[in-house]
Amino acid sequence: MKRPPVLILHAPGTNRDQEAGLAVQAAGGDPRIVTVDEMTSRPGALDQYAAVVLPGGFSYGDALGAGGRLALELRAWLGDELAGAARSGRPILGICNGFQALVKSGLLSTPESRGFTLAANASGHFECRWVTLSVEPGCRSSWLEPLRGSVIRCPVAHGEGRFAARDSSVVAELEKAGRIAFRYLASGSAGGNGTDPAAGTYPANPNGSDHDIAGLCDATGTVVGLMPHPEDHIVDWQRPSGPPGAQGSTVFEALVDAAR
Amino acid sequence: MTRIQVNTADHPDEKHIVAAAEALGVAGLRGCRRWAVYHLDGRLSPADVDRLCREVLVDPVTDTAVVGPPPAAPHVVEVAPVAGVTDTAARELERAAATLGLGPLRAATARRYELGGDLDDDDIDLLMRRLLANPTIERSSRGELAPAFSPEAATGLAVAAVPLAGLDDEQLADLSRRRLLSLDIAEMRAIQAHFVACGRDPTDAELETLAQTWSEHCAHKTFKAHITLTHTRASGEIEVSDHDGLLAALRRATDELDVAWLRSVFVDNAGIIAFDDRLDLAVKVETHNHPSALEPFGGANTGVGGVVRDILGVSARPIACTDVLCFGPADLDESDLPAGVLHPRRIRDGVVAGIGDYGNKLGLPTVNGAVIYDRGYVANPLVFCGAVGLLPSGSHPTEPRPGDRIVVIGGRTGRDGIHGATFSSAGLDAAVAERAGSAVQIGDPITEKGCIEVVERARDLGLYNAITDCGAGGLSSAVGEMGARLGAVVDLAVAPLKYPGLQPWEIWVSEAQERMVLAVPPHKLERLRELCDEWWVEMSDIGSFSSDRRLVVRHGGLEVIDLPMALLHDGLPRRTMAARHRDPVPSDGEADALCGVDPDKLVLGLLSHPNVCSRAPIVGTYDHEVRGGTVVRPLVGPGGDGPGDAAVLKPLGTWEHDMAVALAAGIAPRITALDPWAMALHAIDEAFRNLAAVGADPDRVALLDNFCWGDPTVPDRLGSLVRAVQGCVEGARRYRAPFVSGKDSLYNEFEGVAVPGTLLISAIGVVADLHRATTSALTSAGHDLWLVGRGSVCLGGSLAAEMLGIGDTRVPAPVGEPLGRYRAVHRLISDGRVTAAHDVSDGGVAVALAEMAIGGGLGLQVAIPCDGIGAGAAANDGERASGPIATLINEAPGRLVLESPATERAAVAATLGSFGWRIGTVTGNNSIEIRVDRNGSNRDGDNRTGRDGTRNHGTSSNATAEVVISVEDARRAFGCSEARP
User: Fold this and answer.
1) pLDDT level of residue B266 (50, 70, 90 thresholds)
2) Pick the catalytic residue: B75, B194, B217, B826?
3) Is B10 close to A120, i.e. CB distance below 8 A?
């Protein structure tokens, strides 16, 4: 079967590009790691990719807030092209730093109306631990559709991942619009796959996110972002414990399928 | 000039500062509001400022901004980096402004703290000094602080001659002290003689170059010295022996093993060993002690950066980091803190944050380490940073050629890091912060990340003939070493600077971070430049290698250096040093004091000891998952509650087979004062059994040594160092494990008091099938538990002896022939017969068992024979049998606990033979039950199943000791605060 080309966008400081590439490869895609500078120097270059992944890392050192500088670059140089890609239904996935950049760039919501952000973890420091996620049954994203209601286990590794909404109406609207894509779940017994909500409790909800929100999609459902790293759980031996399954590879399979 | 300040609601620093102030004894601090301050110098309209705020600086949900002068607040402290200290936020802000089409502008940052509550001037002063700012790298002020932009214009460049001719010894010594050269009188004389013969005085840069190249840090003068050791045995017998170089002895030990899988050892930036049939592993461990003592975050930060560059310096792609940290007690009373020393808590928090920051940002998993608290480290914390890399076999070029360009890639050169090499070659004292000033830096991991991408690709494209990192001594060492057999011509005017105004000698010796030096054939320069552009890495061509064996450095038209390479590399006079060591008289101290001890409380006390308890609060802030290859993590078991013994890593790019890399460490500083020779063997054994516990092959283990000692010119300090090296040499032989790399850090002293002699042994091994790798967490009720290795009656150097104040000076005998047992364990794990394995170390077998129960969330019931009883027991360890309590807590080496399904019992028994025996069972009843019975030895493996029900908790007598604690209590003591998974 044809391998759709998937852009893995690399900014200075991006560091989970190789794993994201491996996950795309394993899912049947053709990953291409390309730098932001390379993309911005060739207008229209985005057209040759069937999907885009913004991987994790510390773009530009995150010196002005996580993902902030990358968001600026995306808006300034690639904003129209990325928005065009989203309109044409080509899936865009932002993971961790990529999610932070999507949120701050306005690609997940118009900048003027942005009522939510990703703030410093409630614990006050970087958190690296495995979490259990639900793919929300009500999520509107068409490319995540095959995964709705399923459970994924994978690690988080971030210092600024606390989903914070200006007020509760923001979450209600996101919920109503089907834009909440991933939530943290309580881990099941013996580190297995739970199904109960994390209900804000640490460490199942590792950063204190409002309403356990771990990931979102935009109003079209094409742009998806999440803090945890599904690319770090694509084979069984990567999982520290618990029963087989619940791999993050399903996210990349869905992305590649939608990109075909 | 525009000032913008931004407050983020619930910024974590605010809570942290209030809590830390209370720990400092400032109870009046009621609240703290933290502002990020940005100073912008450039033409900006109000609309421009508004746009910068909206698009870059201010988050609409969490942030509040004030443009212009700040509103008044009662207690204000502002803190800003000293000019020249890395300020990445300012740099990124300048670049972001450019993206927005604003500018050009210059930016500087600061932090503003508005402190609430009832505070007097002393309180605020204390908070400023001890919590909010570090004068080594920061300026601070009550109230508004004016920005310090980098200087704009160069001052006059000059090369000064330093008069040497005619100086007497006293004047030479004084010159060495005044200029921070750290050279002794023989070395000063050698330099003087050279220049007298040349008929001129050295330039400042020449003198600095010699001081850097000849520093203890770069030249390892002590490890290459001729040493005479006077060793007084406990019996009073005196042996005098000559040692022709400690480094040579370690190398010889490696050579004599004649191991086929070694690629490059001791000669390059890092050791290289074979991994699979295609790829090699590079490994290196460094220390960054002095910088971490003064500026913990920056010191540890740049420690990680430095060791990662060592890996790049052998053309390898870094794949993982390790860290071993030694601090003073976290609960040290403020009044016990020497003047000029940061509190251990502040050092620890800063070091941990610095390591996490750098490793996380580089995208390298920090996977293995240790933390040790001891009063001996109060003024001299030790920070060991390790890194591992991967490279195709034979891909590392090491031959620069005449005509090759000298190319520097990465960060710019600044005044930061001047005198690092010489600074770390002298002791510390209360006033060192002022003197060291520029020796300490903050890292810039994103620039280093760019170097990683460039070096890997440049290697694969064959763009360079040699590469090295710019570390201690800066360009002077890097170019001097790379061109040692050729010669080099350099023009410093070409080197890109962070800011103007650096004198030529400063550019030449600056240890500014994140720089690599490459020897590049002229026709490949253009391709390298394209690569550097693609990955956002700055590159400069500062000169070329010649063939006249001279080092010639200019700055434009100024002549800076003209030295023969022979003087730099062969001119250093070899030291002759005297060492003295006296073995302590063996004593069993107050061993009888154990009789009345409550074993339950003892075990819970050991589990909660700072040197045993859970490392989750530290490990959780390190990314140990990035690169997707971490098979065995630093924390293990379903809830991540158990301590991992060794890390197992599956490198990206090797997924076509099942082999994995195992990393472990061993360290035993409590034993050094008693027997430095045995200490080395204990440390090696600990590293080995940690590797054994995850299933690594004991016949393919490479070792690294890192010695941290005091002033080696003091004979008894040097004596214990020599004995420790002898222990390493013996260890290489007994364990058939080569040393592949090592480093010594001496002069770890504060006002004449030395750090406890500390040897870190790092070990790297191979797990044949990652699916079979084991962890310490118990897996299933009903499985058997086995104990490998015999205990000891000696408690000297054990954690329990220290905790209980028992003055036992008898150190458990090192294992005579260790490989047999480790091979047996390896066979069992490789065959899939073992479901969990854990090494017995700090706290002894009781702690090891409890940790396995904690990790697995399961109970256990075991009976252990009393140590010192039975055949062979007394042979090693002296005269009298041990009490049952001592059996629980002794730290004899060579021991592991294994969990195995009952169905494998016969196979396990057959493979272990006399190396181990079955001690009990994993249970599902949430209880840790350990019984030591002096009369009920069960070494035949015949476990009692039905025991009488009249057990008393925490009983001990001369005949028996029994621990019965719940897994919950053990978890709580160990520091697992969260609900059980």
Assistant:
1) confident
2) B217
3) yes
